[in-house]
Amino acid sequence: MAIYALGELEPTIHPDAYVHPDATVIGDVRIGAHASVWPQTVLRGDNGYIELGERSNIQDGCVVHCTRKDPTILGADSAIGHSVHVEGARIGTGCLIASGSVVLNGTVLEDGAMVGAGAVLSYNSHVPSGHIALGVPAKTRPNTSFGPEKIAGVVDSYVERAKRFRAELRRLD
Ligand SMILES: CC(C)(COP(=O)(O)OP(=O)(O)OC[C@H]1O[C@@H](n2cnc3c(N)ncnc32)[C@H](O)[C@@H]1OP(=O)(O)O)[C@@H](O)C(=O)NCCC(=O)NCCS
Fold first, then answer.
1. CATH number assigned to the domain with residue range 2-168, chosen from the 4 options 2.40.128.110, 3.90.1800.10, 2.160.10.10, 2.40.10.270
2. Model pTM greater than 0.85?
3. Three-state DSSP class for 134?
4. Residue pLDDT, tens place only, 88-97
5. Atom 1 of ligand 1 has which residue's CA nearest to it?
6. How many other CB atoms are found less than 10 A from the CB of residue 12?
7. Which among 94, 102, 84 has a CA at the least distance from the CA of 129?
8. Residue located nearest, by CA, to atom 4 of ligand 1
9. Which residue, of 52, 71, 87, 108, is most buried by count of CB atoms within 10 Å of its CB?
10. Which residues in the chain land under pLDDT 50?
11. Pairing of strands 139-142, 131-134
12. E strand or H helix at 3, and its extent?
């Protein structure tokens, strides 16, 4: 597993979290219970810190970074889809950032906010609770597309998937 200290900065990973062996976790990264991190994702806490709340997931191929001024904080019960780049953002509880999005420094997603697939949120964007940000550059509107029950479904499925991977994943090469 590629989990690195950087000087005195060391990841803190809850024993009930799942970090896939092909994910890379560096420095001050804090991962909560039943959270999961999937293959080819890089979490680099070299300036500032990255926090992943309980039951949240960061799916395959994501890049998550932070700065001293802007840590990246993902609340509980939230999901970051495949191939997402997040840099110094605060993401609340019950949020979803869908595939291929870019979320830049100082951005805030309130609890239950969503980012649609392929969106770009520039510096200091703000997505209110119950809203979705869509497009490039992203525009925000009430989320009538993908409600909180669907976000919870994604979160639950990844909590269960992590249990399966912990029990059944075997490397064959
Ligand atoms: C936002 C999303 C849910 C689609 O919503 P939707 O309401 O079904 O979208 P519709 O196809 O009805 O389109 C509604 C409008 O939004 C636009 N739209 C839909 N998805 C969009 C996107 N990702 N980016 C920009 N615009 C989008 C459509 O072009 C349409 O615009 P119009 O009204 O001007 O014609 C989908 O794009 C998305 O991001 N899904 C995420 C899925 C996901 O992450 N699942 C979990 C994986 S683990």
1. 2.160.10.10
2. yes
3. strand
4. 999 999 999 9
5. 116
6. 12
7. 94
8. 145
9. 52
10. none
11. antiparallel
12. strand 2-4
